[in-house]
Write a structure and sequence with these properties.
Radius of gyration: 24 Å
Shape: elongated
CATH superfamily of the largest domain: von Willebrand factor, type A domain
CATH class of the largest domain: Alpha Beta
Strand content: 15-25%
CATH topology of the largest domain: Rossmann fold
Largest sheet: 6 strands, mixed
Number of domains: 2
Helix content: 25-40%
Order of helices and strands: HHEHEEHEEHHEHEHEEHE
Structural class: alpha/beta
Length: about 325
């Protein structure tokens, strides 16, 4: 096999054509029902309870976060020499009188803390061999995080990626949060041949759209997150608190025992038959998978980002995200 990326994509194509995915995932209904969403909301409260078990307050109040931008706010920060154009209302008259030189007060600009969620719903995420699709697991994570950040008092925004970028407007009230979740939970049809954004273009888009100091969550299978993305990821880490949730399916780590499969290259329509019971093939695949995931984790952790690899089979997702 040329690479894990090719192998996984071909395997996904074969499995989906043979209707081995859960029937409910083929419908045009929302990915998650209201009962599941309500359960995730309750779990988000459990995360906060765990974090604040020995603390006197639930979370910081509005106004306790320092913006990376300099401006006039409520908290005095320092004084500096007056420059032409400065607002005379903020003159430090006492220091000016003592020093004999005009000084101006500088304040910290305050703003509401914010969080941003990137949810990858591209073709590669519409794959699953056990329990649920990768996109369904990614959505569960996104909803848990949305409720968690809302409960923490942060303004929340995001983007959903499939055939194009669907931006989710910022909001801080409950109605805005539920509206974002409703958008993220839209039906996810079977994969199509429509060209989709690559990971680099996704990073460029959010880099220009997200204000500095935002808590940023990237939820994806990172299948095309190569070393070419290093510079863009580094820029995000320099300006934000970035956490990556890497969604994987068991079949991406080890070939299932499915006998002989006909794998089709989506890009070229080339066909290749693979015997998954062949020890040599399964060994090569396992080694390639191990290297692939190690490379992605090394890239992300090496930049100082929070990282967790999350299987589609895990239910208690909140216990896996140590960065919360």
């Amino acid at each position: 096999m040329k690479s894990l990326s090719d192998a996984v994509h071909r395997l996904w194509q074969t499995l989906s054509r043979n209707d081995l995915l859960a029937p409910s995932d083929h419908t045009l209904a929302p990915l998650l029902d209201s009962k599941t969403i309500a359960d995730l909301r309750q779990r988000s409260l459990g995360v906060i309870d765990h974090k604040t078990k020995n603390k006197s307050v639930l979370h910081r109040e509005h106004g306790e976060y320092v913006s990376p931008r300099r401006g006039y706010g409520l908290d005095y920060e320092e004084s500096r020499v007056y420059q032409p154009g400065d607002d005379l209302r903020f003159m430090n008259w006492r220091l000016t009188a003592r020093s004999g030189e005009p000084y101006i007060k500088v304040f910290r600009e305050e703003r509401r803390p914010s969080a941003f969620i990137l949810l990858d719903r591209r073709n590669g995420m519409r794959f699953g061999t056990r329990l649920r699709l990768k996109v369904t697991q990614a959505l569960r994570v996104a909803i848990l995080l949305a409720f968690y950040e809302h409960n923490c008092g942060r303004s929340l925004s995001g983007v959903v990626i499939d055939g194009e970028l669907h931006w989710l407007a910022a909001g801080s009230d409950e109605q805005s949060t539920l509206g974002m979740i409703d958008t993220m939970n839209q039906a996810c049809p079977p994969p199509s041949d429509i060209q989709q954004p690559d990971f680099k273009s996704m990073l460029r888009a959010i880099h220009s759209a997200v204000i500095p100091g935002t808590r940023l969550y990237l939820i994806s299978d990172f299948i095309d997150a190569t070393n070419d993305c290093h510079g863009l990821l580094a820029q995000l880490v320099a300006e934000h608190e970035v956490n990556a949730i890497h969604i994987v399916d068991p079949a991406e780590q080890q070939l299932p025992k499915a006998g002989k499969l006909r794998l089709v290259d989506v890009a070229t329509d080339d066909t290749r038959r693979v015997d998954t019971s062949d020890p040599q093939i399964t060994t090569q695949y396992r080694q390639a998978a191990r290297q692939h995931f190690a490379d992605r984790e090394s890239l992300i952790r090496g930049l100082g980002m929070g990282y967790v690899r999350l299987s589609t089979t895990i239910d208690n997702i909140e216990s896996q995200m140590a960065f919360l």
